[in-house]
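cron nightly-structures :: item 1 of 1
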Amino acid sequence: MALLKTKQRLWALVDETKDEITSLVSELVKRPSLNPPVDAKAITDYILSYFDKHGIRHKVVGARPDRPIIIAEVRGDAKPGTAAPSCEKTLCFNGHTDVVGPGDISMWEFDPHCGTVTDKQVLGRGTSDMLSGVAIDMHILRLMVEHKLQFDGRVIMHLVPDEETGSEMGTRWLIENHYADGIDGVIVGEPTSWCNIEIGSKGGMWATIRSFGTQAHGSVASFVGDNAIAKMAAFLGRLEELRAMAAKVSEDQREVVRFSKDIAQRILGAPGVGEAIDHVTYSISTLKSGMPGKAECEYCEANVHLRIPNGVSAQELKDSFLEIGRQCGVECEVTRIMEAACTAVHEPIVQMALDNANFLYGKKVVPVYQWASSDGLYYRRLGIPTVQHGPANIGGIHGYNETADIEEIILVAKTHFGILADFFGM
């Protein structure tokens, strides 16, 4: 009961400052941080000034000056009458400040970087993916400092400028340089929508394929030529075979898979799209033919990205991929590969997230696996229990007319604050 009263007090703080949260989302959207190319200066400067203004400790790290990673920290004081903790816990908020480009501007009903706040929504690129999530957790840190909240441990925030193009200069760099050491739990504010808590995401395999041929006169090319484009077309067509690779999951994962497929089908709508949860999927990123010194039919190159579900071996996928390449007579270079990863449904932080979301939304909220991936994958691969929950109007993500609903922004803020309170036993 005492914990519920604490959470109700924290939720009241969110309600009292909800206009400030939506205003913060708006300010972030107005500072475009498109990736590619990465131009993080405006949004980084704004976030640093926000942390300075509200007395939040922070530092900037990163592999390169033009890829600034912000790490913020709030430390708690032991509750009155208790000893200082012998082994303090650390909770991490993770977010990315980069957004994808708007594409064809004429397809937008509003300026993609307007940040307009209406009576129901915030408008603009990044509102769902994932500047609302970033603003929510920045605001929570502010409230913790302003109200001198007492808890045993520390809350840190990892804000990275490079998630949309592979995270090499973002969360991956943080992990590789030990900035995740000692973290006990992670909340990622990436978009999920209200109905689910994401606890697992796909791995991936990236590859470049090259085919070579010999030119011939077009009238007899089918007889005497060796067309690199035709070889590539045959190879790409056979990638469909890999979609048959299905996940082998444990008993306790089956219900999560079922929830995930149902939600994917309901949200995305395309026939059979739920299969993306537990089957390999792929996308062709680039395709080009010809090169200096070679005719179009003599050289063809493609880049593909395959997504690997929990329960499919990355090595098994790689072996099958390379065998198709061998049979089609093309060269396949696997440039990067990662296993999928998930957090067990019985982990305390998962139950905290589900309990708070169910209570606040008054609807059934379920654990799911992503049909895509996020930076939560890298923490999970270290064995750190990680949940993802953030505002989402799915249709606009990486598309046109991206928005986030204000009601959902506020409920997600309360959910994150509730998880934090449970995590530290406030």
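cron nightly-structures :: done
DSSP finds twelve helices and 15 strands in the chain.
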